């Protein structure tokens, strides 16, 4: 019971945009929103957190919620592996422009011109010893491609 209440507390601490990404029953989502609006950490908030724990106990399988929270924290092996794959792809792209064609095959909707431009800018930054702004932008671009591909294929981004 305490573990489920701890999961509920973790949900309350999430930013609203991150909370939207987790599939929750509507009564639990409403209880979490109510707790998020409580700014003082007083008795009323403690009771609301206990109520969230009670609602969590009524959920048949809380495991998907735990997995989603782990993915948001970056604790899940799947999420870590996904980020490492993106990093390897970025490194390969910077080393060889021919990787662009592989990316185009894997992600048909990719904006190759934008990716090519980011690659050139990142290589230029490296040569000049500038801050790696475009290097990071490539990572975010590739991450966005993978998320769009997951949605198109019906994956939820957490069960890869």
Automatic annotation (TrEMBL):
Domain of life: Bacteria
Full protein name: DUF615 domain-containing protein
The keyword RNA-binding is annotated on this UniProt entry: yes
Record keywords: Cytoplasm, Ribosome biogenesis, RNA-binding, rRNA-binding
Entries under SUPFAM superfamilies matching the protein: PSPTO4464-like
Pfam families assigned to the protein according to its UniProt record, in alphabetical order: DarP (PF04751)
UniProt xrefs under Gene3D superfamilies: PSPTO4464-like domains (1.10.60.30)
Species lineage: Bacteria, Pseudomonadati, Pseudomonadota, Betaproteobacteria, Candidatus Accumulibacter
Organism listed in the record: Candidatus Accumulibacter phosphatis
Transmembrane regions: none
């Amino acid at each position: 019971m305490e573990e489920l209440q701890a999961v509920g507390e973790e949900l309350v601490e999430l930013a609203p945009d991150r909370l939207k990404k987790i599939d929750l029953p509507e009564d639990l989502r409403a209880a979490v929103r109510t707790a998020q609006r409580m700014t003082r950490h007083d008795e009323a908030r403690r009771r609301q957190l206990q109520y969230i724990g009670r609602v969590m106990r009524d959920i048949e399988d809380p495991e998907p919620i735990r997995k989603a929270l782990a993915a948001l924290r970056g604790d899940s092996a799947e999420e870590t592996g996904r980020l490492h794959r993106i990093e390897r792809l970025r490194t390969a792209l910077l080393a060889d422009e021919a990787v662009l064609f592989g990316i185009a095959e894997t992600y048909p909707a990719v904006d190759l011109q934008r990716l090519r431009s980011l690659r050139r800018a990142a290589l230029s930054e490296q040569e000049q010893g500038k801050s790696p702004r475009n290097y990071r932008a490539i990572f975010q671009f590739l991450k966005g491609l993978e998320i769009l591909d997951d949605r198109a294929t019906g994956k939820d981004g957490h069960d890869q």
